Request: fold
Amino acid sequence: MERWFSAVWKNHICSSVACLALVLLLPPPAQAATVVTHLPGFDGPLPFYLETGYVGVEEETGTELFYYFVESERSPHSDVVLLWLSGGPRCSVFSGFVYEIGPVMFVAERYSGGTVPRLEYNPYSWTKLASILFVDSPVGSGFSYAHDPKGYDVGDISSSMQIVKFLRKWLDDHPKYLSNPFYIGGDSYAGKVVPLITQYLSEGIEEMRHPIINLKGYLVGNPSAGDKIDVNSRVPYSHSFGVISDQLYEAALANCKGDYENPTNKPCTDVMQTINNLMSEVLEPACPFDWPWPMPGRDASNRKSLTEEHYWLGDPPVEPPFSCFAAYRYYLSYFWANDNATRAALGIKEGTVTEWIRCATGLPYTRDLPSSIECHFNVTTRGYRALVYSGDHDPIVPFSGTQAWIRSLNFSIVDDWRAWHLDGQAAGFTIKYANNLTFATIKGGCHIPPENRPKESFIMAKRWLAGGPL
Reply:
């Protein structure tokens, strides 16, 4: 049965109903979990409920996905349950847990060794609104692993199917959350697979003809669509932000015909080389990981990931300048997660992941979902809610490209473009479409808005999850 399941998912993108029905019928094995009451570097007992553990998602290769589950600090019996994924692909969801929407964050201080970096409570944690299930996916991310190296050969479709299987097993072991409203969320590259996972879940619910999960919708931040619109929106975005001149922009328009990633003539190649050099002035400053961006037209070996910096296994990060605290926090995570006391507290299985890397590379990954736009359409027209939000200072997945593919869905406007406010000021802009689709910007937000606009991101999520207007 497992072999059949593995073969089927390779050939389905957005219509795997039969595959889902099989996943939902497989008998669940017992899952082991660890209740964590103290974390190294955090002063005193944790003021929230934290559980960690593994869920097996492929018996043949021994693939197990690691998770952090934080119960809502408000009303866990009725609050939303949110499954959260990080981008990369293969950036650990610890990024979401400690840098973005989770309940702890690193103390802003230099690390001198000798002990683990210190943690403190995050006042804008989304666990004040929801129970959050952070999952290291795809396998090879964070502490997720496979016994057989073949298990690491996954892609958009197979890793999404593994998440569906993960959820079915996790909820079998946590049945008290079955009636809670359930959402899927993620940012950057994870934003590409979130609507696919949501569609798989919705198809499974329809096929089973009874609710197996109280699925309500999904939310994605600065999401990759996988479509060429992501890359092609970067040039006009850079022009609008004054990075490239009118003359260069006009030359790109005239010679590249809207395709800036794959130049087909010398004038386009030349102008894109000039544009890329100007972009690098902004994107490769003294703070090397604040604005990672794969440059169109560059050799692939020199590109940074779509979302994050990557380190090869066995290559600890170089200490960045402390003034670049966004990068410095990433640096701290390496030492925190690889400390023996941390691994013991989290219940990490010995011999599985010898070295934790925040964003692992060098493992095979197939981008076999060419575009997620159709999945967005399919899920929202089924009646599920969707929030797509963008930091408006993101050159990696510019809000203008995201706005363009949303408009391509041809949904009618329910609430036209307007500002949404926080503390008497505009915190961003928003528009609501038919089929319960909301798009919002976060003013001044970067590629991962909760990192540099935590309060605005928190309030946006609070209002949307409550079902009200932003």
Notes: Residues 229-302 form one domain. The chain is about 35% helix and 20% strand. The longest strand covers residues 413-422. The longest helix spans residues 190-208.
